[in-house]
Amino acid sequence: EAGVTQFPSHSVIEKGQTVTLRCDPISGHDNLYWYRRVMGKEIKFLLHFVKESKQDESGMPNNRFLAERTGGTYSTLKVQPAELEDSGVYFCASSQDGGGNEQFFGPGTRLTVL
Amino acid sequence: AQSVTQLDSHVSVSEGTPVLLRCNYSSSYSPSLFWYVQHPNKGLQLLLKYTSAATLVKGINGFEAEFKKSETSFHLTKPSAHMSDAAEYFCVVSDWVGSQGNLIFGKGTKLSVKP
């Protein structure tokens, strides 16, 4: 069974540019989560999809971040325009059920904004 | 609010000696607690989880953790460290206040294993 995959693994962009991160969850997992780790800080929750619906987006830092999950399969996270403080590692996770069950994580996308 | 505190940012042990990574949690509810590990350039992998069954939880690779409600602790242990255990370890609580168990992470503990 394929795990959670994320693309790209690394992205280096300049301040003001746009970047789109992609996450492919494990097939059949309705729940998809995005997390972010800014350097030196803990991993923090960004948002949670159940199928194609946003269940909770309370962790999204501001309106420069837009997440989508059209069709309830893969998800994208777009940052537009990117700022220096957006640099970090973005993790995606998926689970079959919510409610405290195991979440399977992807390897992350390391975003550097110069 | 729920939270976890990992008491050590770095732990260094010699190969073959015991490992202790400390974690304290704060939760108004009966918590679900996890330990995840991240090896370099890899995704986060679940080591073990506690979900109100047995208080001593056994995980993969010889790790175990004991849930102690009186001490609000969930320390991770292993009797004998192996070089391959060198990684970053995260203590995690499931956020029942939010929807459907979003995870709240500690800051992580980097484990070094000396030959």
What does this structure look like?
The complex is a heterodimer of chains A (114) and B (115). With 114 residues, chain A is mostly beta strands. Chain A is built from no helices and eleven strands. Chain A has strands spanning 5-7, 10-13, 19-24, 31-37, 43-50, 53-56, 65-68, 75-79, 88-95, 104-105, 109-113. In chain A, the strands form two sheets. In chain A, strands 2, 4, 5, 6, 9, 10 and 11 form a seven-stranded mixed sheet that branches. In chain A, strands 1-3-8-7 form a four-stranded antiparallel sheet, with no helix packed on it. The mean pLDDT of chain A is 92. With 115 residues, chain B is mainly beta. In chain B, strands 2, 5, 6, 10, 11 and 12 form a six-stranded mixed sheet that branches. In chain B, strand 10 and strand 11 (102-105) form a beta hairpin. Chain B starts with a strand and ends with a strand. The mean pLDDT of chain B is 90. Chains A and B meet through strand 4, strand 5 and strand 10 of A and strand 6, strand 10 and strand 11 of B.
Assembly annotation? heterodimer
The total count of helices of chain B amounts to 0
Distance between the termini of chain A: 37 Å
Query: What is the approximate shape of chain B?
Result: globular
Determine the mean pLDDT of chain B.
90
| Contiguous helical run count of chain A | 0
- CA gyration radius of chain A, whole angstroms: 13 Å
